[in-house]
Every structure is written in structure tokens, then in C-alpha cells.
Amino acid sequence: MQPSKFALITGLSSIILLTVLSLGIEVIATLLPHEDDEHLISKGVHVTRTDVTKDESVEELMKTVQQLSGGKLDILINNAGICYTMPATDTEVAEVEKMFKVNVFGPMRMVHYMHRFVIEAKGVIVNIGSIGGVCPYVYGASYNASKAALHHYGNTLRVEMRPFGYDTTFASSPRDTDPCSVRVVNIISGEVHTNILKNDHGRSLPDNSVYYPMNDAFQAHLYRKPGSGIGRDCALAFASEGARGVAFADINLTAALEAAEESKAQATNSAYRAIAVQVDVSSEESVQHMVDTTLKEFNRIDYGVNSAGLGIKQARPVSETCMAEFDNLMSVNVKGTMLCVRALSRAMKNQEERLVAGRTGPCSVGRGSIVNLASANSVVAFPEIVQYTAAKHAVLGITKTAGANSPDPKTAMQANPAQALDNAPHGIRVNAVCPSWVETPMIDKAFAGNPEIRLALSASIPAGRLARPEEVSNVVLFLSGPKSSYVTGVGWLVDGGTTLQMKHG
Question: Where in the sequence is the signal peptide annotated (predicted)?
Fold first, then answer.
């Protein structure tokens, strides 16, 4: 039996973890004290609490690696990193120093303490760089500098490691099999979905910045990443509840790939398959491609959940509403929902109805079910977020119209072509889930730097807390499945009693 190979990964990414584990390599992962480790331990990962910016912490890690691996490290992956987005003219040096401690000095410290283990194993050192270190990433001059420094550090380290031979197990080409050096690899990634931007949440331009007149554009740049909360949890819930296949669709393909891969570990159906599709819900062609790709893979679509959406960046009274943000929310939250409902409706109309066993005999569950993610803002108004409230009211309106019934679908279409998408006569149900405050990345952004607001909000909710994503996805699964076969065209509130205290519109 060959001895185990070991990889040490800092700044753990799920896709990196799954890739390394798939090679049969044991993983030692570093986490910060506040980060959850249950999902890692369940996969057999050796978890350590390490701060790569502190010598004493990395020294303790070195002892752990020695004990676990016997002093051999086949792969060292330096992935820990933070971001600092700010115009070069407004850069705070203290923030840059903090970032360099992680992005540059962190990998240097890891190599300093772990290099003998890598040499002993004739292994590989991998530095996760960024396209920002090669070409300009706007408002990221200092971040770009940190990644450029890491790239050059890795390039020099590669030359300096030449005297030490390496194992050809990980060779990817004939020239790689020349055992002349420990390999040092810089991976230049593009813009991917990670937690690195959490450090930018709540960041704003100084009032005296020359860029302040362009603050809306700056804020849009900060929040360019897609959310990954309720929709992702819904997709994982379908996998865990026995679906045979799930299509993960996101504007960020890497995020979709990561979630699809994660779902395989949670799936309970032995025939389960997962695919990842890139989609821009504001594009008609992109949405149709998503549906066509899903049909090609699975032959039918029984359930469609439309969860793509944007939150507001800054609450403002109506008189100061940013129209660029208004247009953006309408494009994604409203037009995106409409395009998805339309494309899914067309696909489901061509499917055969499904029958399931009921207590009193076979029961038809129709040709499909669509659930839109609306909001408590679909039924009540909150101050200073007119763009979000208007968008979510529209989503509920789409849901009611698409889920409406008519006695004769042919007559309804002839009388009013706009009713051509009304789905009840075709055995297609359309409903909406209307959550209030849910623990998601979107909410984290809204409350970044203001924990007292989160506490005050929780206290104002009759349930005494924000909802968990699972509490929303449970309702989505109910509205999707056969137990709600006679429910259509409704908005289901999941708000912990919040709207009971308000006057509904």
C-alpha cells in the first residue's frame, strides 16, 4: 500500500477542495477561528485554525503537518486572500498593508515554514494569483499590486527551486516530467465567485473624493457579484429531497459549477445528475439557452425556481432615487423573472402530465411547477426602497397572471393575446414565495459594518430572528411538489410574522 499524499490548502475553496480530494489526496485545510468546519470534517479533511499573517500560528501549523504527513507535503496551495477595492487616489495605506499581509506575506510565510516538507516530497507549490496582477482591475490598484507581487515571487521561487527534484505524478505534459525542480505554479484566475469580496462590503468613497460624483458606478462595481443564498439552497434542497437531476444556473459559471459539485454529496437519488449553466436572466437569448440546455440533458423540466435578483445598494427617499439602479433592478428582478417564466412555460406546455399516488388514488400534478422568489415587499411597502418594492410587486403580478385560470385557453388567447402565458389550463402551476429578511450574502452586504441594525431588525420581527435559507427553500419545495397540486397564482409569505404588523397594500 502506497503512503498517503498530502495537500495543505489555505483560504479553502470548495472547488479546489473537491478537485484535490478526487485525486485521492489527504487535505489539511486552514480556517480562521470563526469559520465553520463541520462540512470539511465530514469529508475527512484535517482542519487547523491558522492565521497566515502570524508566525506563531504558522509554526503551530508546521507541527501539525509534520505530525499528520510525516514531514512530506506533496502540494502546498496558497489561496488565502482578501480584496481592497478603492480608487488609487483614495487608497488608505493601512488597508493596503493589511491586504499585503495576507496576499503577499502570507504565501511567503507558508513557503518559509513548509518548504522542507515540499522538497522532501518532491512536491508542488501553487500560488492562486489573479488576472488583476496582469491587467488593470478598475478601482483595484493596490489589489493588483499585491497579486503582481505574488506572481513575481512565484516566478523567482520557481527558479530557486530548480536544484530540488520533483515527483512526476502531477506532470501535465512531457516537459513537466523532467525531474529537475520542485514545481512552483502561479494560477492566474479571472473573476470568480468567492468570499474574497466580503472585505469590500459596506465600503464607500470618501466625501472629498474626486470620484464622488461617480459614487453610484463605484457602488455598482462593489456589488457586481451574484448572490448565492436562497436560490442555491433551493437547488441543493431538490438534490437532497430525491430529484433525479438539477440544473444550476448562474451568471457566474464558477459559482454554478461549485454548487453543482456540492449537490452530488447531498443527493439521495442514485441516478442523480447535476449540470451547470451560465445565464444572464436579463437576456432573452441567454434564458432560452438555459432552458434548451436543461431540456437536452434531462428531457423535461418538472420544477423551475426563479431566484436571480438584485438588492438595493443604498436606501434613499423617492426624491433621491438612483434611476440607474432602478433600471438595473427592473432588468434583472422583473424582466429576468418574466423571461424565465415565459421560457419555462413554453417548455412545460410540451410535456406530458405526471401522475403520482394519492391517498384516494392516482393524482395529476400537471406538466410542471414554477416558483418565483418574490418578497414581503411584494405585499407591503417599506420606506426608501421604492425600486426594490416596485420590482417585487411586479414579480407577484407576473406570478398571479401566469398562474391564473380561464375556462377555455384557446378562447382566452384569442380574446386577449397577453393571456397566452396563463398556465393553469395547461396543468402548469405558478406561485411565489415572499420572504422578508433571510440570512444571505445580500443581507450581509446590507448590514456590513452595522451589526446594531441587524440586532434591532431581529428584535422587530415577531419570530425574533432572521430566517434561514432552508426555511424558505422548504416552502419552495412544498409549492413545487405534488402536495400543493391545487395551489397556483399565490404569493406565500415567509416572514416570521413581520407583515402582520403592517398595513397591506
Answer: none
pTM above 0.70, yes or no: no
pLDDT of residue 52: 95
Q: Which residues of 164-192 are buried (b: 16+ CB within 10 A; e: fewer)?
A: bebeeebeeeeeeeeeebbbbbbeeeeeb
Tell me if residue 98 is catalytic.
Answer: no
Catalytic residue, from 392, 400, 410, 483: name it: 392
Q: In DSSP terms, which residues pair with 126 in a beta bridge?
A: 77, 185
Q: Is 392 a catalytic residue?
A: yes
Would 6-216 and 301-501 be classified into the same CATH topology? yes
CATH topology classification for 301-501: Rossmann fold (3.40.50)
pLDDT in tens, 111-147: 999 999 999 999 999 999 988 888 777 788 999 999 9
Q: Is the model's pLDDT at 498 over the cut of 90? A: no
pLDDT digits (tens, 9 = 90+) for 397-413: 999 988 765 444 444 44
The CATH code of the domain at 6-216 is 3.40.50.720
- Of the candidates 388, 445, 483, 503, the residue annotated as catalytic is 388
Which class for 357: exposed (0-12), middle (13-18), buried (19 or more C-beta within 10 A)?
exposed
Q: Hey, where are the domains in the chain?
A: 6-216, 301-501
